[in-house]
Amino acid sequence: MEFASETEVAAAGKHVRSLTAALNQVLFGQEELIELVITGVLSRGHILLEGLPGLGKTELVKGLSKTLRLGTKRVQFTPDLLPGDITGNPVLQEVDGRREFVFQPGPLFTNIVLADEINRASPKTQSALLEAMQERRVTVLGQTHELPKPFFVLATQNPIELEGTYPLPEAQLDRFLFKLEVTRNSVETLERIVSQRELGGEPEVEAIMSSEDLDETLSLVRRIFLPDVVANYIARLVDATHPGQSAASKSVRYGASPRAALSLASAAKARALMNGRVNASFEDVRFVAPAVLRHRIVLEYNARVEGLTHNDVVRAILSEVPGQSSATPRVMTPANPG
């Protein structure tokens, strides 16, 4: 594989900076959140946004779809939502004089699916997303239907402590590249919102990238060089999340999966491109690690009782695992820099 060149990365960086600036006008005072959302999209990953109602999660997703010129459908997840309501259902129709079942695609058949308040639907309905999020296809009555490309699920959920919520199954959580926490606004940000927004109004944003620009950028991310030492660091981080593998993991019942390691690598490459670099670094991995790992580790009951959070454990692991392993030679230059 030919690695990305500095010229290509610089050209893509212009689009990414414009995209970042546009989304910062949609959601005020959430610069790091927006950077992570863009990183997730460039990694071709699905994103779970968690926060209290009214913090702008849905507006951020809608703004992203407008700036990328991608088709978007919104599904409001409710307790009575059925799997067929999102995947689609076969409908009996008359075809060439005969009555037969014809598949009618559901709202999953688009580029960006906004799964609003995903944890208000039953586990049965949530599980209908598993195949779509992993294989980018759905199977109904034995027939497989490919989803459009690119395909992203950007889901919002309320904190599990709120009434009427169901915890997402671990298998589904693992399919989200990032779990991002949307925090409340500062006084300065609230003042800006009050001054520049009207209740019920939507911020106006322009399209930033065409579908061709997005395809080229997504392909370029895959060509960002991942040094062996960074790959080794990712492997050691994921291994340290398992019980007995680090001091910080003593509070963990189940650690992160191999999918977490792949997610760390993809996200680190995406962030390297966003910062105009042709290779991923230790710092890129550390920046995306909380978003990748926090929803993939299961804590022991005693840890939860003591008030220990997933973020606490991830921070402890990051502080415990060194970037450079003494057993790994330090090689940071791509074989063919292009």
UniProtKB/TrEMBL annotation:
<protein>
    <recommendedName>
        <fullName>AAA+ ATPase domain-containing protein</fullName>
    </recommendedName>
</protein>
<dbReference type="InterPro" id="IPR041628">
    <property type="entry name" value="ChlI/MoxR_AAA_lid"/>
</dbReference>
<dbReference type="InterPro" id="IPR011703">
    <property type="entry name" value="ATPase_AAA-3"/>
</dbReference>
<dbReference type="InterPro" id="IPR027417">
    <property type="entry name" value="P-loop_NTPase"/>
</dbReference>
<dbReference type="InterPro" id="IPR001270">
    <property type="entry name" value="ClpA/B"/>
</dbReference>
<dbReference type="InterPro" id="IPR003593">
    <property type="entry name" value="AAA+_ATPase"/>
</dbReference>
<dbReference type="Pfam" id="PF07726">
    <property type="entry name" value="AAA_3"/>
</dbReference>
<dbReference type="Pfam" id="PF17863">
    <property type="entry name" value="AAA_lid_2"/>
</dbReference>
<dbReference type="InterPro" id="IPR050764">
    <property type="entry name" value="CbbQ/NirQ/NorQ/GpvN"/>
</dbReference>
<feature type="domain" description="AAA+ ATPase">
    <location>
        <begin position="43"/>
        <end position="186"/>
    </location>
</feature>
